[in-house]
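Q: A reviewer asked whether we had any structural model of the full assembly, not just the individual parts. We don't, so I'm hoping you can provide one. Inputs are below.
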Amino acid sequence: MRRFSWFNATSLTFGFAFLYLPMLMLIIYSFNESRLVTVWAGFSTKWYGELMQNEAFLDAAWVTIKVAFWSSTLATILGTMAAYIMVRAGRFRGRGLFSGMIYAPLVMPEVITGLSLLLFFIAVDVNRGILTIVLAHTTFAMCYVSVVVTSRLVSFDNALEEAALDLGCTPFDAFRSVTLPIILPAVISGWLLAFTLSLDDLVIATFTSGPSSTTLPIKIFSAVRLGVTPEINALSTIMILLVTVGVIAASLISRSLAIKAKADERNAQS
Amino acid sequence: MAQPKPNKVFAPWDDPDAKPIIQFKNVTKRFGDFTAIDNLTLDIYPQEFFALLGPSGCGKTTLMRMLGGFETPTEGTILLDGVDIGPVPPNERPVNMMFQSYALFPHLSVWDNIAFGLKRSNMPKDQIGERVERMLKLTQLGKFAKRKPHQISGGQRQRVALARSLAKAPKLLLLDEPLGALDKKLRNETQFELMDIQETTGTTFVIVTHDQEEAMTVASRVAVMVDGNLAQVATPDQIYEAPSSTYVADFIGDVNIIEGVVDLPDAEVPDGAVSIRWSPTEAPIIAMMDTALPTASACHFAIRPEKVSISTEKPEAKNVMSGKILDIAYLGNISTYHVEVAPGLIIKAQATNVRRLSRRNLTWDDHVYLSWTDTAGVVLTE
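A: Here is a predicted structure for the entire assembly that you could use as a starting point for your response.
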């Protein structure tokens, strides 16, 4: 019983237009022949070619990927540890305070986080560069990872870990060989979330980056202040494409795994 | 200790020379203000199939988790083969547990689940394979070895959990409500399977259950627990036939409990029997009893419904009561009659349905006689 009324069609169109029209504009203008962003002068891919020649953009892209990789990895390790301890520790005095402190960076204005980190790095006399951005991104990304992993651990049957201990595992071995493989999907999605957050962070990176370590968002932002060029449109289009492909691939993989599990279950019954 | 000979009854608890495998010595366990186990002392012998039976919250699971090493006693000691296991962590105890939820590792195949514990022992690789194959054979899981836990049925999962916990050949196997998730028919079959496996392996089993029928079927001895204490520890038949208190009598099976007082000694009462006055007008109940009770002391007379006969003619028996049928519960093989013998006192009597229902001569509001011998019930003072 599928009803596709006039009202449904309209709201769908408006909804999607609201979400994607701006991006569509950007993609279209990235293929513009003209240097003027708002004047259409025919189809061309020359800006993509020029982008590949632009050392500054390529450097920034490389820095961004390095930062995102390391900060999301660190954040995943720390966030998983925090989530594990908070879920396993049970009830104790000050538990609310502890978990609140883990989640506080979620609601902290980025400007304040960035500023405090900047002051901290100056105070301990660390030269600002890739390392400081990685550390800064780790601090705010780990609470996101912790939220994702916590929600998985809450539904995790504690008896599984007890069974592992019962069968001769040390507590660390039990975590490594039983708990971690089972919560791995949550850990991976926490990592992906941290990676994405790091990729598109501008504010905190601005505070903590040094002269030799400009990330892509900083580069785009400062370039745009001198005027939007079709080159930036091209760069943005590539980023949109990458993200889209990544998301679709991830969902296809997980769906095919789910279908396979279902098929196995059917076979088991017959 | 020698193997129990086939024609000799297995009863190490009656043998003063037998060495217990598990000894609880004045064990108390508190969680905050709540006392889960209250100064409990208990011996369990090798090769026993020992059942901890009680309602939820009686402390039976806590007792088992202390054996597994997941809880430590607040006071007292637990000895395994004479060694205090209080400070030993679960992974170093020669004890394995089968969890209520089975706790099978979902990311591992049946084979790997069973091999999990062996891989963490010093066993050489080739022997691990052999051992797993033997466990698969014992539990008839051979063709499911490569399946994941979600690809097999509930009954098969239960057997994987059993195989996994038996694989390391523990001195003691703990089973936490092992059959709770199975339907009734499968549960009955599995109970006998469990008993077979226990006999084949010679492992000491301790089972926690709230299902009295299950405890009676599988166990060599049953401990009935109430509020962190043992109400009675005895063989299933003793628990059923000679409960130590009205609590145990009431908890195990169906029972009629009649309150009364011990009557004056009377010439009509034979030696070794006691006469209980339960109503000012009716004849007292005559029951055999080992120990003499002081006159006028309060007591309870407990009798199982199946030991009460029901008839329309007045029978010749030590104890006869008359009354009116209030209710009949038809269970197919048997029927339970609820007979009001005095205002407010209803006695349940059970009779096998040897004739078809349509030919039954008893019906609602019929006047009937209930009777039983002087050895059919027990007199309880607690």
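A: Points you may want to mention in the reply: Chain B has a mean pLDDT of 89. Chain B is about 20% helix and 30% strand.
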